[in-house]
Structures are given as structure tokens and as C-alpha cells.
Amino acid sequence: MSKLSNTLLMLQLLQNGRKYSIKELAEKIEVSERMIRKYKEELEYAGIFIDTIKGIYGGYVLNKDFNIPYLNLNNKDIDIITKASNLINDSHLKQELLNINSKITLNLNNKEKNKKIIFSDNEELNIFNKVNNAYKNNLKLKIKYYNLKHGESIRTIYPLGLYLFQNEWWVSAYWEEKDDMRQFHLKRIRDCEILDIKFNPKEINLKF
Known about the structure:
The chain is α+β, with helices and mostly antiparallel strands. It folds into two domains: 3-62, Winged helix-like DNA-binding domain superfamily/Winged helix DNA-binding domain (Arc Repressor Mutant, subunit A, Orthogonal Bundle), CATH 1.10.10.10; 75-207, no CATH class. Helices cover 39% and strands 27% of the residues. The chain has helices at 3-14, 22-29, 33-45, 75-86, 91-103, 122-137, 201-207, and strands at residues 50-53, 59-62, 139-147, 151-165, 168-175, 180-185, 189-198. Strands 6-5-4-3-7 form a five-stranded antiparallel sheet. A hairpin with a 5-residue loop joins strand 1 (50-53) and strand 2. Helix 1 (3-14) crosses helix 3 and helix 5 (91-103) crosses helix 7. The longest helix is centred in the middle third of the chain and has 16 residues, at 122-137.
């Protein structure tokens, strides 16, 4: 994911009010501890202050007076971005549009007032980390995906972006077997294997 996406993900992790060590944050976001410190600096430049608790049991805690702004996105917004990217011939601009999806990482419901969480369990977090790793390194994924109509099936996908929609994670990807672009709900990915096969995102963008 982009630097912006990782910074926002760290912000969402901290918003539940608990203390996270730098090591914990680095492991969850899959970056170095140095980058976690950098993300903290970036947030503070933006006026979002994170308290530092020192000592062996120390860590970062989001200042209790801060509330994350909400983006009220819906299926129509995501559909417009996808359709717009399909109409553009410029590969660079098309990639930028696809990257917007990965940057849309704050989509909370105002009525819930920060009570929702990003990941429902450790299994979903593990899937996210694998998908994120494949996305950042342009590696193909073999997933076991559950479909409400057809049940489980094995699919090969090329992850092109991660985004939050209604506070749930989705991956925008090229589906090899169907030769088509699809949106996959991370909660429906039952198993995930990173393949040692690279793909070129520009070739996918030119195709669609």
C-alpha cells in the first residue's frame, strides 16, 4: 500500500484507544519500526497528535481529543471510479485512479462514533497482510474464495489495490480465470497463497 494508506491504517489501529508498541504497529502494517515513527511525524504535521508512553511497556496512544473524519462512500462511488478507469487510455492516469481505491481507507459511519474495528479476527488480519504483501510486490495470489451462490472455489488474482468500504476491506484485482476485473471481499477469502510469479500492473491497466 502507499505511504498515505499505511499512515491512515496506523491511525485507524490507534483509534480504538488502546496502546500499541512500535513493534506491534510495524508487524500489523508490515513495515519497519523506522517507518512507524515516520508515520507518527506525518500525522503530527497534520495536527493529529499521538501520545508517546515511555518505558519498557510504553508505546503510542491516540490523543483522546481527536476524532477521525468520516467519508460517506457507497457502491456508486466505487463503481464510478472503476468505470472511469476503464474509459481512460492513458496508462499512468488509469493507475492513479486505481490507486485511489487503495487510499480510500476511512469509511466510517458517523452514528457508530468510532466503535467499529478494522479486522474482525486474526484470520482476517493474516489474509490482509498476505494480500497487501502481494499488492506491494506485484505478485499473483491463489485464493480460496467463498461465493454466496457457488460456494468455495480456487481463483488466481492479481491484486491492484486495497480499500475500505463500509469499514470492511476489499481488494480490487484482475481475475485470471475469468479474464476480468473484480472486487473481492477479504472476509470471503478463506485461504490465501502468495505465488512466486510477478505481474505487470501496467499491462492489466492497458487491457482494461
